[in-house]
Design a protein that fits this description.
The complex is a heterodimer. Chain A is built from no helices and 11 strands. Chain A is mainly β. In chain A, strands 2, 4, 5, 6, 9, 10 and 11 form a 7-stranded mixed beta sheet that branches. In chain A, a hairpin with a 4-residue loop joins strand 7 and strand 8. Chain A is globular and about 45 Å long. In chain B, a hairpin with a 6-residue loop joins strand 3 and strand 4. Chain B starts with 8 loop residues before the first strand and ends with a strand. Helix content of chain B is 0%, strand content 46%. The chains are: A mainly beta, B mainly beta. Chains A and B meet through strand 4, strand 5, strand 9 and strand 10 of A and strand 3, strand 7 and strand 8 of B.
């Protein structure tokens, strides 16, 4: 069974650094891309970027380029998003999602439970 | 890349059908067949309900169906049920492993 388990909620101050994780299981991590999606309080879904588990090839949405760093550790099947200096506007739930239900495809077929990041100013 | 345009809300009585539209451009919806729809219940992660415009994952009821014409995709919920209440988002692949989501639609069962 494919599972994506995300790290727990975080409460930070503006200017702090942070790294949240998404641990994959139930499939071969190196064969799939994992994407990240932001959802601000009461708002819609926003595409952040995506990383390939095999070689960490990463693509960023223009809105998030330079704002976050997406990385992965294939030895432990885990993807990450990190911030070097948080802003209050980074307060949101962050979801990871695996690309494709099967061997290939462009749908976000499996989702993590989300990580709530709260940043106080 | 601007968000795809969806109606803010739609509603219907149990058993009725509702249609949610998702309007984009030639750079997203119209470019290929990789349009997906996600259902999100309060406090939960999104769930894939339609992919490749018309396909349903295993376990998704057949009252959910998708279509596309030009730069507009649609999600049809037939035989609306109380459990269908929630937020619905369309999403389009825009190339190079990038995506754009719709603005979201709240479905209310009267």
């Amino acid at each position: 069974e494919v599972q994506l388990v995300q790290s727990g909620a975080e409460v930070k101050k503006a200017g702090d650094s942070l790294k949240i994780s998404c641990k994959a299981s139930g499939y071969t991590f190196t064969r799939y891309w994992i994407g990240w999606v932001r959802q601000r309080p009461g708002k819609g879904l926003e595409w952040m970027g995506i990383i390939y588990g095999s070689d960490s090839d990463t693509r960023y949405s223009p809105s998030f380029q330079g704002q976050v760093t997406i990385s992965a550790d294939k030895s432990i099947g885990t993807a990450y998003v990190q911030w070097s200096s948080l802003k209050a506007s980074d307060t949101a739930i962050y979801y990871c999602a695996r690309l494709s239900l099967g061997y290939s495809g462009y749908e976000l077929g499996y989702w993590g439970q989300g990580t709530l990041v709260t940043v106080s100013s | 890349q601007s968000a795809l345009t969806q109606p803010r809300s739609v509603s219907g009585s149990p058993g009725q059908s509702v249609i949610i539209s998702c309007t984009g451009t030639t750079n997203d919806i119209a470019r290929d067949q990789y349009v997906t729809w996600y259902q999100q219940n309060p406090g939960k992660a999104p769930k894939l309900i339609v992919y490749d415009v018309t396909r349903r994952p295993s376990g998704v009821p057949d009252r959910f169906s998708g279509s596309k014409s030009g730069n507009t995709a649609s999600l049809i919920i037939s035989g609306l049920q109380a459990e269908d209440e929630g937020d619905y988002y369309c999403c389009s692949y825009v190339g190079d492993y990038s995506y754009v989501f719709g603005s979201g639609t709240k479905v209310t069962v009267l």
